Amino acid sequence: MMTTTALSSISNGYIDSLADKDPGWLAAMRRQAFSQYESLPAEVSPLYSKYSDVNKIKPASVHFAAQTRQQSALGKDLTDRLKELEQETGVLQVGQKIHRVFVRDSVAKQDVIVSGIKEALSKHGDLIKSRMEANPLNYLEDKFLALEASAFQSGIFIYIPRNVVLEDPIRVITSLADDGTSLVSRNIVVADTGSKATVVQELYAPGSSGRQDVQQGYFELVETHVSPNAHLEMVTLQAMGADTVNVSNRKAFVERDGKMSWYIGMFGSLLSRYKTDSVMKGPGASAEDVEIIFGVGNQSFDVMSNLIHHGQHSRGRVLVKSVLKDTSKSLFKGMIKIGKEGKGTESYLAGHAILLDRGAKSDSIPGLEIETNEVKATHSASVAQIDENQIYYLMTRGLSREGAKREIVSGFLEPLSRKMGPTIRAWVNYLIENKWQGRQLMLRTDEAMEQILEVEKSRYRETQDIFEKHYKYR
């Protein structure tokens, strides 16, 4: 019989059992983080407490396996994803187990590292330690950050060496186990000086099959370390089961003239709670965070994105757009923080929501903390019901009411998806279409995907042609 530990029952003994397998320096970090976890409230700031839906997490029903177990045979969907990975560079993780790792020969020859976090700690411990010590975490910021830093069971490590430019993305596919257990992961990506890469993360969960005493959850800490003149893109497509919970803390540490790009599409889970901190440490550093949320039923999305400027002439941009149906909810929290050394900074923070039904709800709480002058910092937020006049106009042109809504939503999201490459746009649009139709949220290379991908590639070529020809308006 499998032994599990409930989230409500995590103790020093449980953390010690995980720390026993770690190097001493990491074990000390685990214990320090857990000491903070026990004392923190679920929502640290009272400003956000009344808006939070964190009570949708049922700690007594979230269970973690005491040891890695063999996953039963992969279902058809994950088997198909595995076949696709065989032609690329990437990782398939199911529960705690790193199921397979694929690295193309051309990528391996450039000394790129893609592995599970446990293997990386044994082979590249000094590299990981140096980055963690250079960019220490403040566990008092968030209760779940402290949980993820102390109780992680697994994770992925990716290292892009100096001056290596990868044309194709590294794929990270993570699915929760089929036994109803939850997972805590710590994922670390290091982009060395002058490198450039894209990491695409897909998140899935089979769900608890309607069991009232089990709630599956995926808790993750993602750390990205972007060295001088490096550019890292992190794309996340969250398509987990509708009865699961997903909590993610994301930290980017960006050095001189480096660039960090977050692209996130949130579609699944009962509760999605994402906190993204982009820390621009060096002069000329930049970061952008583009997020698309599509909620139905009673889903809740709790999103926080902070731009933290320490270096001079740094640039930051956050754009979050939510589309909400039925009684779904979104909460957008964001802060621009410019330190005393951040002269010449330009920063922009925006959260916008469109409500498709009367029962849907969205709140936005942007803010500024500025400790110097000679900066540009702007924030904006808007929440509005869908425009009935626009629906009527489109219906007079032959569209059904539902078709009119979809066209309006497409136009609302277009400025965000335009920032992504054609393949990422196709994946996002595919998941949006599946969600609208009530189909399973899983990327597949089927006929519908091929059609969407061809449309997006065609649009991308047309856009390039327009700029290359320098059209003049007469």
From TrEMBL:
<dbReference type="InterPro" id="IPR000825">
    <property type="entry name" value="SUF_FeS_clus_asmbl_SufBD_core"/>
</dbReference>
<dbReference type="GO" id="GO:0016226">
    <property type="term" value="P:iron-sulfur cluster assembly"/>
</dbReference>
<dbReference type="InterPro" id="IPR055346">
    <property type="entry name" value="Fe-S_cluster_assembly_SufBD"/>
</dbReference>
<dbReference type="Pfam" id="PF01458">
    <property type="entry name" value="SUFBD_core"/>
</dbReference>
<protein>
    <submittedName>
        <fullName>Putative FeS cluster assembly protein sufD</fullName>
    </submittedName>
</protein>
<dbReference type="InterPro" id="IPR037284">
    <property type="entry name" value="SUF_FeS_clus_asmbl_SufBD_sf"/>
</dbReference>
<feature type="domain" description="SUF system FeS cluster assembly SufBD N-terminal">
    <location>
        <begin position="18"/>
        <end position="172"/>
    </location>
</feature>
<comment type="similarity">
    <text>Belongs to the iron-sulfur cluster assembly SufBD family.</text>
</comment>
<dbReference type="Pfam" id="PF19295">
    <property type="entry name" value="SufBD_N"/>
</dbReference>
<feature type="domain" description="SUF system FeS cluster assembly SufBD core">
    <location>
        <begin position="178"/>
        <end position="412"/>
    </location>
</feature>
<dbReference type="InterPro" id="IPR011542">
    <property type="entry name" value="SUF_FeS_clus_asmbl_SufD"/>
</dbReference>
<dbReference type="InterPro" id="IPR045595">
    <property type="entry name" value="SufBD_N"/>
</dbReference>
